[in-house]
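My current task is to audit a protein record that another person submitted. Thanks in advance; the entry in question is below:
***
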Amino acid sequence: GISCVPRIGYNHIWKYLIEDVEFKKQLSVEKPIVKGYNFFKSGKVLGLYSKSENGLVYVKSQVQPSYSKGGSVYAVKIIIHANSEIQKAFCPCPAGNDGRCNHLAASLFAMEDIFNKTVNMKETDTDQLPCTSKPCTWNVPKKRKQEPSTIQGVNFQKHVYGKESKAPRAPTPPVAVSQSVNDFESIFEKIKNTETKTGKKIGLSYIIPHTLPEKELLPPSEPESINRTPAKWEVVSPVKDAPLSMSDIEQKALRAKERLFDSVNDIKEIVEMTKGQHETRMWFDVRQPRITASKSKRCLLRPTTSPTKAVSEVLYPKQVQTNAMKDGIESESSIIQIFEHETGNKVLKSGFFISDTHPFLGASPDGLVDEDKIVEVKKIVLKEGESLEDGMCRLGIYKRFEQQLVLNNNHKYYYQIQQQLFCAKRSICYFIVSSVRGTHRDTVQFDSAFWENIMPRLESFYFDHVFPELVYPRILTGESRWNKDLQFPRLA
């Protein structure tokens, strides 16, 4: 207790924290008083203890830090003269070397509060009051560990000395704000009308949600049964609910690898049955366990780059269709028709090609010409007043070299074309880049030296990261990827 401590008032606190500092020609601020009072009112002073010796009173208090963790406290020590003058103080906090920190101020305000309550109690006829109505004469420490509460239940209040605190308002229950599909469709319709009137594209039309085309990109998924027999083009059987042992995972991986390499026997059937591409369920099934051409460059990572995100993009791509993607899909057939009319070539539909030597790779060209050529179409969006050539250079598809446009062999489109040629076993690609201001056509040859350089890296990435996740998912369930904390079984 603090029964032997002389009376401490606000004037003593002000003198020690402000006036004595100014007398020593040191910088004085009211921050310790303001924050210290809020510390005290917030219940951070847990206890006060004192003893008297040789005309001096030694006080020790326990004060919680501003952000307390694990129940830690600061032990504040104060020396007070019998005439109530504060002689010296110390606190182990970073700002308490000179004894003028927030924790010290909180301790002094706690002592002042006890003296005020004692005086008020004496001035009242306590004999007429029941014990439960009497103010307490000791400092009630705050619990160090508290139950967690919602943010709505937290009372954010600044305490000012000498002013009564307002009663906290009743917490307002959170209200969920939802946006209906009709609201988005109405906004999108207004934007499209404005674009039609002005003849200009509005960037917001590429951001807000919009309705998908009549033929959805992804057919509705069917519920999988644990005992369902996988189709012959599927690589991995459905994952069971029960956890598998490492031995079971190894056996499952061996079966999956065997099915992966056996799929080369069905290449012709798969190509024929997937000519509808995104309109067929099978197209999604056969490309899911493989590195497709559009992800080729994405899988070539630096040694210091984590593969987790790339694996997620390969196996769990987000089915998001922007307005630009929708426009590109809808424009593809008309762009190919113009190409046929201007060149005299007949473009056939293409299915999904699996590499007969590396069946973990696949590709879906936009079209086939003769026996040795493919077609790949890209629709790009230009800025206002930008030419097609400038737009292609801005996007990095082409580079200017000696006043000529040269295809950038470090762009993802170049990697995509090379993998398409490799998987389809063709040597030439008609590369078409189209926009509202014209069309650019180029002929791209298969670069065997380029492909031989990246093939080992793609194979390593697949069997080190993609294949383990395919066999027994960990990233999908929020765990760390295989071969980071847990090694995947090595296969022969």
User: Anything to note?
Assistant: Residues 10-118 form one domain. The first strand starts at residue 45 and ends at 53. The first helix runs from residue 10 to 23. Residues 312 and 476 are 8 Å apart (CA to CA).
